[in-house]
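User: Hi! I'm working on a homework problem where we have to compare a predicted structure to a textbook description. Could you give me the structure for the chain below?
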Amino acid sequence: MSVWYDRKDYIEEEYTYDKKPLCHEGEECGYVLKGSLTVYLNGKDYVLHEGDSIYFNSTLPHKYINNGDEDCISIWAMTPKFF
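Assistant: Happy to help. Predicted structure tokens:
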């Protein structure tokens, strides 16, 4: 996998991406540095905690939700450059 873009996300407590799930060409992988993050992926919720990671094909419907009571900090790499 060639990484074209990376970013560090700061997701505030109780944040929900309120639009419908995204689908786009490419791949994504993320790592949670602090807090917890729910990744809605292809109709299923995956709850990630500090130290957890995830990898998925971006053509699957996905979005990010912070159901926790603290902010979440995570690092993401995506291909191709999307944002």
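For your comparison, note the following. DSSP finds no helices and seven strands in the chain. The CA atoms of residues 40 and 67 lie 12 Å apart. Good luck with the assignment!
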